[in-house]
Amino acid sequence: MQFIDLEAQQRERLPDGRTIREAVDTRIAAVLNHGRYILGPEVEELESTLAAYVGVDHCIAVASGTDALLIALMALGVRAGDEVITTPFSFIATSETIALLGATPVYVDINPASYNLDPAKLEQAISPCTKAIIPVSLYGQPADFPAINAIANRHGLPVIEDGAQSFGSTQLGHRSCSLSTIGTTSFFPSKPLGGYGDGGACFTNDPELADRMRRISRHGQERRYFHSDIGVNGRIDTLQAAILLAKLPNFQQEVEARGRIGAAYSSKLNAAGISSTPQLAPGNTSVYAQYTVRVPNRAEVQAALQQQGIPTAVHYPTLLCQQPALLCQHSCCSTGCAAPLAQTASEQVMSLPMHPWLSDADQDRVVSALASVLQLHSLSSAT
Predict the structure, then answer these.
(1) Which residues of 108-143 are buried (b: 16+ CB within 10 A; e: fewer)?
(2) Mean pLDDT, to the nearest integer, of 171-188?
(3) Cross-strand pairs, 223
(4) Fewer Cβ close by (within 10 Å): the C or N end of the chain?
(5) Contact residues for 139 (Cβ-Cβ < 8 A; gap 6+)
């Protein structure tokens, strides 16, 4: 069983009858023919298509989801001495980009139902040094942006959505990456919309921010060999833009399949007596970039499932405030992790196989195996 089946995706047929693999080959051939491997016409086409999909005025396609976060922070003027509030329960890129600019990540604990930053704990983390807030839309559903934005607005702070796992999801009818000052996402191959290499994007309705992010992603270049900003080499490759364009006609269909499969998983697991299934906040949809449950004695459960040919993964076993590269002396973490709910989650979460082509039979197999393993573990613990 595949944890994520990218080969199955290539066999899927587009509305015009071609397979995705055939469409990718055609798009790549077009790039090879015109030879504009950097900032070719596919990049602008991708940006306009993605902006329309998300429902914002501007999209800047970049080299990775990490670059998207870094460029967004740079465009907001984050620098040494600033603080940026975020969650400790995420991939390192969320905090790494803050630290790269010399700023300090300040961590706010999660809501244990959604695994996203808890707005009820946000305001107390704001200080005169706070420059921005980065909520992460973890596992596929948006963080609570109405509440987060309301607090941010009271303090005059911009909000960056780290939507690396939530692209295609919605909140109150609005798509992820349109929910804050800047939205960012990743096109890493395993993401809901994945390329065949690294890629990412920044989204905004602010034309000045859009211009700044575009310049920063191109070495701060305002015009050829004239650099008005310190920037980075953060452009997306034309080939990756072409691949994403080939896959986009089926993307919304895949989003809907993810929602159906996620709901079916929860129904089957709940019927099997497993209640630690993902909880969708009111008004949210999820793309289930990971379908994540909580289990006791996770390592033993994973090993037992692996023996039955069922792969699992852990996102994430170590909090950002515990990563050696990010340890700081800020009061948020100098006396130990101040995020007990995130800590508990990091010790229990386990992601199951999840992709738009997961069959009912494979879901049943996963649910049956997990229920059996957990029952055996419960009986063993009781004796």
Answers:
(1) bbbbeebbbbbbebbeebbeeebbbbbbbbbbbbbb
(2) 98
(3) 226
(4) C
(5) 115, 165, 278, 286, 288, 289, 290, 291, 292, 315
Strand partners, 350: 293
CATH 3.90.1150.10, the chain: domain bounds:
251-382
- Cα separation, 292 vs 296, in Å, equals 13
pLDDT at position 333, please?
A: 46
Tell me, what amino acid is at 188? F
The amino acid that residue 131 corresponds to is K
Choose which CATH entry (3.40.50.2000, 2.60.120.10, 3.40.640.10, 3.40.50.1010) describes domain 6-249. 3.40.640.10
Task: Examine residue 288 and say whether the peptide bond preceding it is cis (omega within 30 degrees of 0).
Answer: no
Alpha carbon distance 273, 136 (integer Å): 30
Between 164 and 329, the higher pLDDT residue: 164
Gyration radius of the chain over CA positions: 21
Name the DSSP letter for residue 303: H
> pLDDT tens digits, residue range 252-272?
999 999 999 999 999 999 999
Question: Rounded distance, CA 366 to CA 310, Å?
Answer: 7
Other beta carbons within 10 angstroms of residue 341's beta carbon come to 17
pLDDT in tens, 289-306: 999 999 999 999 999 999
d(CA 82, CA 330) in angstroms, rounded, equals: 12
Nearest to 294 by CA among 89, 83, 72, 9: 89
User: What is the band of 49 on the pLDDT scale with cuts at 50, 70, 90?
Assistant: very high
DSSP strands (E only) in the chain: 58-62, 83-86, 104-107, 130-134, 160-162, 170-171, 174-175, 182-186, 200-204, 221-223, 226-227, 291-294, 349-352
Query: Residue 186: which pLDDT band, with cuts at 50, 70 and 90?
Result: very high
Answer whether 159's CB lies under 8 Å from 181's CB.
Answer: yes
The answer to whether 362 and 1 have CB atoms below 8 angstroms apart is: yes
How many CB atoms are closer than 10 A to CB 356? 23
* Domain 251-382 coded CATH 1.10.10.200: no
